[in-house]
């Protein structure tokens, strides 16, 4: 079947693909990537699961196809920016980036970037692990929970295959479980509060992050918060279209659309939930 033409977008943002983990979804992720032709692509951390290097490393042909597609995008003019996370923290070492051979050297690597939207709004793009208490103060606990969660993912996959084959998401039960765990993490870490404060401190109107595998768009009175989700349980990503709207694209749920007010109104603008579409009634965008 002939593949439809990719949709041109200003910015495409994804995180927590976890290539190298057996529970990653490279085939679905590649299908998502091929839907778009972005001016800029942001890989917002944990794209490679470096925690699996010593045990549990799984690299499929689909992983190779994902890398090949990224190189094709870079060769065709897409600007690719990579923000390391806690699972690919080895990329934070400048020596590693300097050792990358062309064409991988075309990929920009930094702790965080600033993304300017169509109307000139500034969004800080960062993975988010630096605002997680367990990652900064007790990473041993984070890795222990991660091992337990991998086992839960395996059980979930087998149960889905044997009993729940009609359910669309093979990791739906684990997505629910992880959401509850991450709510506790956010409570302890004050994750969203700290990361939005960090964005304000960098003169940004919003923040895009990943890390907690909980996709969403929320806001307080001064800062927009967008979480890209992941490509293990949720299969989600963010795209800014040419009209300036930002869509949280969700494989298993209705999309969420954030329509930013014109930049000229920024002094009076209130980034409240009233400015975003209801998940139950996403507004269709014209490609």
Short recap of the structure:
With 287 residues, this protein is α/β, with parallel strands linked by helices. The chain is 30% helix and 20% strand.
Secondary-structure topology with pairs:
Elements: E1 7-14, H1 26-33, E2 36-43, H2 61-75, E3 79-82, H3 94-99, E4 108-109, E5 112-116, E6 122-126, H4 133-137, H5 139-162, H6 172-189, H7 191-201, E7 206-209, E8 216-219, E9 224-227, E10 236-240, E11 246-250, E12 256-258
Parallel strand pairs: 1-2, 2-3, 3-4, 6-7, 7-9
Antiparallel strand pairs: 1-10, 5-6, 8-9, 10-11, 11-12
Helix pairs in contact: 1-2, 5-6
Q: Identify the strand order in the major beta sheet.
A: 4-3-2-1-10-11-12
Structural class based on helices, strands and sheet pairing? alpha/beta
Shape: globular
Strand content: 15-25%
Helix fraction, binned, reads 25-40%
Count every beta strand, where a strand is a DSSP E run of 2 or more residues: 12
Instruction: Give the uncertain stretches in residue-range form.
Output: 272-287
Nearest-angstrom radius of gyration? 18 Å
Distance between the termini: 21 Å
Mean pLDDT over the residues = 80
Major pleated sheet = 7 strands, mixed
Give helix and strand order, one letter per element, not per position: EHEHEHEEEHHHHEEEEEE
Number of H/I helices: 7
């Amino acid at each position: 079947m002939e593949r439809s033409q990719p949709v041109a977008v200003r910015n495409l943002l994804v995180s927590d693909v976890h290539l190298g983990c057996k529970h990653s979804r490279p085939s679905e992720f590649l299908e998502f990537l091929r839907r778009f032709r972005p001016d800029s692509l942001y890989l917002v951390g944990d794209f490679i699961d470096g925690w699996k290097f010593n045990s549990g490393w799984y690299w499929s042909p689909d992983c190779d196809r994902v890398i090949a597609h990224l190189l094709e995008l870079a060769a065709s003019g897409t600007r690719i920016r990579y923000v390391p996370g806690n699972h690919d923290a080895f990329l934070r070492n400048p020596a590693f980036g300097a050792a990358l051979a062309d064409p991988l050297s075309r990929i920009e690597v930094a702790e965080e970037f600033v993304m300017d939207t169509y109307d000139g709004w500034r969004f800080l793009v960062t993975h988010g692990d630096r605002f997680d208490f367990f990652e900064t103060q007790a990473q041993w606990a984070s890795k222990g929970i991660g091992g337990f969660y991998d086992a839960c993912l395996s059980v979930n996959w087998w149960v889905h295959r044997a009993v729940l084959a009609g359910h669309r998401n093979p990791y739906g039960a684990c997505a629910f479980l992880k959401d509850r765990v991450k709510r506790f993490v956010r409570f302890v870490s004050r994750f969203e509060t700290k990361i939005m404060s960090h964005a304000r401190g960098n003169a940004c109107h919003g923040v895009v992050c990943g890390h907690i595998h909980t996709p969403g768009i929320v806001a307080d009175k001064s800062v927009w918060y967008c979480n890209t989700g992941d490509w293990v349980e949720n299969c989600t990503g963010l795209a800014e279209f040419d009209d300036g709207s930002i869509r949280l694209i969700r494989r298993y749920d209705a999309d969420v659309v954030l329509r930013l007010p014109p930049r000229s109104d920024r002094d009076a603008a209130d980034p409240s939930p009233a400015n975003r579409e209801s998940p139950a009634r996403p507004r269709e965008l014209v490609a």
